[in-house]
């Protein structure tokens, strides 16, 4: 960590050139005696990545940034706030602290937070930044979190861990045992030090696989931001044996869509089916990840179009965790009929349909955009149909 980076002139240069072309800057030359051009560019690129992801850090003076890979791997403020809202108490320890965004928000819900980070330089950076952010209840430890946990006599209300997938497991089935640290192998240690454990995993992890590897899972939170699933959060409680609750959350700019159910419900639930009625409903990405295809139909009293289509319909407009559309027209999938309708531009989605969006666009010469939304899907009679809709504001 080169603290000369924090000198006023260098910080002014970084802030002035956030939108500049890096190659052009290097060509012109970056001449500061106390820092190398490479260090300045690393700070500039990392800070730029924080503009929307970490606005608090971006807008705070004299923040020191790690390399851009650390920024890519860290939680966003949006997901960190949600994560912190799930836990509270006197003490929490983050075994895989990273850039410290999660701990920053944990500090608003706990009296004392411990941040462990095996990378000594990154730990120094985080310590400096907490001072700039005026946070006083976080202790930073430059040590492997599990090793610190083994050595300390302290116990905690919560343990938080964000295991990273090992590079040699790419392309293989995603198991928690293939991550660093190996959480399933250390569950006994974790429960010896805390009654509650919060684990963050990639959305790539199959929920059924995670449940087989872990014990005492109380709930699983599927967190999406603007309809893109960002992370799975697993809460474990010591000796917990009751049913697992699935909480889906889609964090949007002005609203939050939530839907909750007990995992065992889906295995016994059945849906009612119907031809398309007045409105069409498309579940958000978090619900799609949860697999609650029958449960949502039961809870919200909507009809499925087909067992495998995962589109829903109802005669009335309801508050639905996803997108809602007014159905304007239903037609069989036929090239001549589509040509007759004269679609030149439309938003296209496919559900349980043999052709991809790209194939449909190319085949029927329909460009992306406009106010028309076309759903290519399969109906109750296994017929391929096209549903013309308009999005409900």
UniProtKB/TrEMBL annotation:
Protein's GO biological process: methylation
GO MF annotations in UniProt: methyltransferase activity
Name listed for the protein in its UniProt record: Class I SAM-dependent methyltransferase
Domain THUMP-like: 322-390
Domain of life: Bacteria
EC number: 2.1.1.-
Top class in the EC scheme: transferase
Cleavable signal peptide: none
SUPFAM superfamilies cross-referenced by the UniProt entry: S-adenosyl-L-methionine-dependent methyltransferases
Cross-referenced InterPro entries: PG_1098_Fer, SAM-dependent_MTases_sf, Thump-like
Residue intervals of the PG-1098 ferredoxin-like domain: 279-321
Pfam families (UniProt xref): Cons_hypoth95, PG_1098_Fer, Thump_like
Transmembrane segment boundaries: none
